[in-house]
Specification:
Largest sheet: 8 strands, antiparallel, barrel
Radius of gyration: 17 Å
Low-confidence stretches: 196-210
Shape: globular
Oligomer: single chain
CATH architecture: Beta Barrel
Order of helices and strands: HHHEHEEEEHHEEEE
Distance between the termini: 9 Å
Structural class: alpha+beta
CATH class: Mainly Beta
């Protein structure tokens, strides 16, 4: 699809938004809007088999996420999101890299429920943040299994008060490989379905082939 290729070209080299200028951001938003007009799944929450699985972030305007790159001596690595339709859980993981043996991880677990055909309410339930080696992090799949087992970690690890941390997200584009979302604070997210073993990449994300 030409419009999909145009979006991938617009975000190429922008390191998930970290290297975007204001002009770049406007061009990317325009490319996103044009692709959203051709959404093959206007009722994305009914396309459960497409939503389910592991996703990797290609681009975002979220300053909350991009701000993880601003910690002294640290750089933002890959960002993953695992959606489990069966359980209603979402697992967000951000890898952070810096000095040897001090690689970090920020993980946020949430529950979601449908509010409409394309909007979900997200209720954040747990935060884990610390050094990868101390929490035994190897890759997202392995770490999510540890979270689901109820394991407590030697890191910042706490549960959010019920109803205190929540928001909503509109899924505005969904196909076999790409998902676009718009959050309640105005941020946009472009993600690709992860079809290779996760947790092995660092630094800037390369553009996928479709």
């Amino acid at each position: 699809m030409i419009k999909k290729a145009a979006l991938l070209e617009a975000i190429a080299g922008k390191n998930r938004g970290l290297l975007s200028t204001p002009a770049d951001a406007q061009a990317i938003l325009s490319a996103i809007a044009q692709l959203e007009d051709y959404n093959p799944n206007p009722r994305p929450l009914e396309a459960r088999e497409l939503l389910d699985g592991n996703w990797r972030l290609l681009y975002t305007s979220s300053q909350e996420l991009l701000g993880l790159d601003r910690f002294p001596l640290y750089k933002l690595g890959q960002i993953y999101q695992c959606i489990q339709i069966k359980t209603g859980n979402i697992y967000n993981l951000a890898e952070v890299y810096g000095l040897p043996y001090l690689e970090g991880l920020v993980s946020v677990t949430a529950r979601f429920e449908a509010l409409s055909e394309r909007r979900v309410q997200v209720n954040f339930s747990r935060l884990v943040a610390g050094l990868q080696r101390l929490v035994g992090y190897q890759n997202p799949g392995q770490f999510i299994e540890s979270l689901e087992s109820g394991k407590k970690f030697p890191a910042i690890d706490f549960n959010f008060s019920e109803g205190r941390q929540q928001g909503w997200l509109d899924i505005t584009y969904l196909d076999e490989d790409m998902r676009i979302g718009r959050g309640n604070v105005g941020s946009v997210f472009v993600l690709i379905k992860d079809r290779v073993p996760v947790g092995t990449g660092r630094g800037e994300v390369s553009s996928p082939s479709f």
